[in-house]
Amino acid sequence: MKKEYNLENYNFDLPKELIAQKPASPPDSCRLMVLDKKNHKIIDDKFLNLTKYLMPGDVLVFNDSKVLPARLIAKKETGGKVEILLLKQTNKNSWQCLVGNLKIAKQVGTGLKFSQKLSGQIIRRENDVAIIKFNLSGNKLMEKILKIGQMPTPPYIKRIAKQNEYQTFFAKKLGSAAAPTAGLHFTPRIFKKLKQQEVQIEFVTLHVGLGTFQPVKTQDISKYQIHEEYFELNTKTAQRLNRAKKDGRRIISVGTTSTRVLESCSKPRAQSHELRVQKGFTRIYIYPGYKFKFIDALVTNFHVPKSSLILLVSAFAGKKFIDKAYKHAIQKKYRFFSFGDVILIK
Fold first, then answer.
1. Would you say residue 154 lies in a domain?
2. Residue 22 has pLDDT above 70, yes or no
3. Domain range for residue 93?
4. 173 lies in the same domain as 321
5. Given a cut of 90, is residue 295 above it in pLDDT?
6. What are the residues facing 220 on neighbouring strands?
7. Hey, which of 3, 130, 320, 340 would disulfide with 20, CB 3.0 to 4.6 Å?
8. Beta-bridge partners for 98
């Protein structure tokens, strides 16, 4: 196994106090670290100064997926509590779910009570997940989920987040089991500054799924089989992005999810690449050695050790540079993960 493929090389020790438990207030008041790949330089700044590092004609590409309040608390028939995380709807009255208690997840036939009007039953298992059939279906089921569900923040966040804290202000298409967190820092105030700078704003969709909650499970990262996630790139957006790329303007992906869409849709054309209109599921797996086809810069968070996300940014910036940047961030007490500070890699 090549050294750069060893998962342990993507591990690091992080003081617990640097794991952000809530967003900056307001969200755009967080810090910004700029990684200049060309000059191998690290700059400490404020996120409100993002436009200092952008040029007229740059294109920022956001993920407009909307987070479902997918965490439900249920009572078993015996009275004990169990946490359910909705992952994927399989039909009008059934969902693929993560079940907090693995023993219960294995017990097909277990009844669950979510509220006076909502109940369910585990009808089968599929690997690490359970299929739960609910007593409601269609719009009635969705209305109840939206009413009683909590936001599905990662386990390292030890408080229940408010719905507006864990949702981008521009979120549009419901379907994610976790937030595309790089977009959480953007506010109408930042968008106004971007437009004044003549920065183009575009949206793609990728519904964040099960893989967000799974660490890389193979010691050799090249052997890992990544999760699939549903995405959409429409015709007009693809045309505008292709035009910008052809004009030599920078394509700046906001988040690893937007990156996955753009790189999934990028196909060879002559001496360059262009986007093809697509929708469906992607299993694109980006780790060191990957050659990026379409994006020129990346706005992202500080990521969890041994995750597919830290592999992606290591592929984009170079592992040594990311190692240096993360050590600098810890020394300078940047805030990490979903509610933390921001990196611009350019």
1. no
2. yes
3. 71-148
4. yes
5. yes
6. 6
7. 340
8. 85
DSSP class of residue 143 equals H
Helix (H) or strand (E) holding 315: helix 308-317
Residue type, 166: Y
Phi, psi of 283 (to 5 degrees): -120, 25
Q: Parallel, antiparallel, or unpaired for β 65-67 and 173-176? A: parallel
Chain segment 55-81, per-residue pLDDT in tens:
999 999 999 999 999 999 999 877 788
What's the pTM value of the predicted model, to 2 decimals? 0.92
Tens digit of each residue's pLDDT (9 = 90 or more) over 252-283: 999 999 999 999 999 987 567 899 999 999 99
* Per-residue confidence (pLDDT) for residue 214, from 0 to 100: 76
Contacts 24+ apart (CB under 8 A), 100-107: 104/76, 105/129, 105/130
What token pair was written down for 38?
Answer: 């060309």
> Residue 254 pairs with which residues in a beta bridge?
299
Pull the structure tokens for residue 49: 């100064």
* Pair 315, 339 in one domain: yes
pLDDT of 4 reads 85
Number of domains into which the chain is organized? 2
User: How much is the CA Rg of the chain, to the nearest whole Å?
Assistant: 21
Which amino acid, 276?
R
Query: Tell me, what's the pLDDT at 313?
Result: 98
CATH number for the domain harbouring residue 283: 3.40.1780.10
Q: Structure tokens of 198?
A: 């003549």
Q: What is the DSSP string of 153-199?
A: --TT--SPPPTTTTS-TT--EEEESS--GGGGG--HHHHHHHHHTT-
Inside any domain, residue 296: yes
Tokens of 260: 């996955």
At 50, phi and psi to the nearest 5?
A: -50, -40
Judge contact between 152 and 70, C-beta under 8 A: yes
Give me the mean pLDDT over the 310-319 stretch: 97
